[in-house]
TrEMBL record:
Source species: Hymenobacter jeongseonensis
Biased composition, class Basic residues, residue ranges: 440-457
Tree of life domain: Bacteria
Positions of the Transposase DDE domain: 292-413
Name of protein: Transposase
InterPro entries: Tnp_DDE_dom, Transposase_InsH_N
Span list, region Disordered: 436-457
Domain Transposase InsH N-terminal residues, every copy: 7-61
Pfam families on file: DDE_Tnp_1_6, DUF772
Length: 457
């Protein structure tokens, strides 16, 4: 069978797969062979055979990611030229996409020394980086204890049950797709997924940025890279980002500070556990200290790093103040002194919390949900993004870019700008001749006389 002679044929073919909601390359070739309109679009004759499905997969791997990025930028530029993009407000969200690998086929990771060094003359391929255990010892010990408790809880006396496996990205990986990560979506079973992150314009729902991320990390950790790519595309179109909308999964003190430094208003709800005020303690911004109800001062002492890597500020009072305080039995009954812990980004957190409580903050939350969630629903159910047909992080990124290009193309083709139905023109007042002006004066003087004549007696 003939191959893909020109790059436009390949990109037309894969875009047809996205528009026709086809995930498999084999089904895509079979579907195109039965459609005369698609054959005409691809430049094939009726009796000309389409390429093998494996040719499509190999051609996808040959093209670098920069080519797919260039195609996305070209379509996005057309959307900007047609007026579909406002540019100042963006809604950000992410959703897991099932990887092309089975969770049942995952294997355990090995220690770095157990794999052995890879010889230069050996024909065997080197072991992937994902097959090596990189988690700290204390995390592995906690996972083993959790697995032991889970097995003891599920065991029933006298029943033969298979031992449950505790699958984690710290101890297991997929040999078929080492870049896929084990993740859990609320309400669904655990699976190997990729994470699709989107930035959608609030004007007409055009996708402005898309990227493939690893599914084992929090959404807030992917925001800096997403913001960098989004700003690059906006600067290329001479647009400026002013407001960013996201859900509470992107709430992070570092993200709040990053957006404020770039002059972007972050409409991101803070976590429910955050409290702008500490009951019984008043904060003084000038001295950076807290005062309790008894009048004792809790000064700033040091910085600390939390378990999740976030920086914290530690405040505590002196031992002599707490030991002599009459409220010690109720304030710190089992400690020598009172200690408070606050995040390093407490000021950005406070400003974000105040925006969240405002009426506009509530409205922005509804705008974010009504903007990006329908786009994800369309991509997952109508554009073939429900499952990956490729393997590897680079292949997943290419597939997401093609899906976003197909979505924006359909937006562009369906867009009909509002046209003005009628046009009113202000014509200049005509210049009257001397006879016309005299006749006009005579009509004005005779009009009351005719009205009197017609009045009944």
């Amino acid at each position: 069978m003939s191959g893909l002679a020109r790059p436009p044929q390949f990109f037309k073919l894969v875009l047809v797969g996205r528009l026709e909601n086809l995930v498999s390359d084999r089904r895509l070739v079979e579907h195109c062979a039965l459609r005369l309109d698609i054959l005409y679009l691809l430049g094939y004759e009726v009796d000309e055979e389409l390429p093998w499905h494996s040719t499509v997969s190999r051609t996808r791997q040959l093209f670098p990611t920069a080519v797919f990025e260039r195609l996305f930028d070209h379509v996005f530029a057309q959307c900007v030229a047609r007026g579909l993009v406002a540019g100042d407000t963006q809604a950000v969200d992410s959703a897991p996409v099932k990887a092309n690998a089975a969770l049942e086929a995952v294997v355990e990771k090995q220690a770095a020394g157990a794999l052995g060094p890879h010889r230069a003359g050996s024909s065997a391929p080197p072991a992937p980086a994902a097959s090596v255990v990189t988690a700290p010892v204390h995390q592995l010990r906690n996972l083993a204890a959790h697995q032991a408790r889970q097995g003891a809880h599920s065991s029933v006396p006298g029943a033969q049950q298979p031992k449950a496996r505790l699958l984690s990205n710290k101890t297991h990986y997929s040999p078929a797709d080492p870049d896929a990560r084990i993740s859990v979506k609320p309400g669904k079973a655990r699976a190997l997924n990729y994470l699709c992150s989107l930035a959608v314009d609030t004007a007409h729902g055009v996708i402005r940025h898309v990227q493939a991320d690893f599914a084992d990390r929090r959404d807030s950790l992917h925001l800096p890279r997403l913001l960098t790519g989004l700003q690059r595309r906006l600067r290329a179109q001479e647009l400026r980002l002013r407001e960013l909308l996201a859900d509470a999964g992107y709430a992070n003190g570092a993200n709040y500070a990053l957006l404020e430094r770039q002059g972007i208003t972050a409409w991101i709800p803070v976590f429910g556990q955050y409290k702008p005020e500490i009951a019984g303690f008043a904060y003084d911004a000038q001295t950076d200290a807290y005062a309790c109800t008894a009048g004792k001062i809790l000064s700033f002492r040091k910085y600390d790093v939390a378990a999740d890597g976030g920086w914290r500020k530690i405040y505590w009072a002196t031992c002599s103040d707490c030991q002599q305080c009459p409220l010690k039995s109720t304030c710190v009954p089992g400690a020598k002194r009172k200690q408070l812990t606050r995040t390093l980004y407490d000021a950005p957190y406070r400003r974000a919390w105040q925006r969240q409580q405002s009426r506009r903050g509530q409205r922005m939350r509804r705008v974010q949900q009504s903007t990006v969630e329908p786009v994800f629903g369309n991509l997952l159910h109508h554009y073939g993004l429900r499952r990956m047909n490729v393997r590897g992080h680079a292949g997943a990124h290419k597939t997401m870019l093609l899906t976003a290009v197909a979505y924006n193309l359909k937006k562009l083709l369906r867009y009909r700008p509002k046209r003005q139905l009628s046009l009113a023109l202000a014509l200049p007042r005509p210049i009257l001749t001397a006879n016309a002006r005299a006749g006009q004066r005579n009509r004005r003087t005779k009009a009351p006389t005719r009205a009197l004549r017609k009045r009944p007696c």
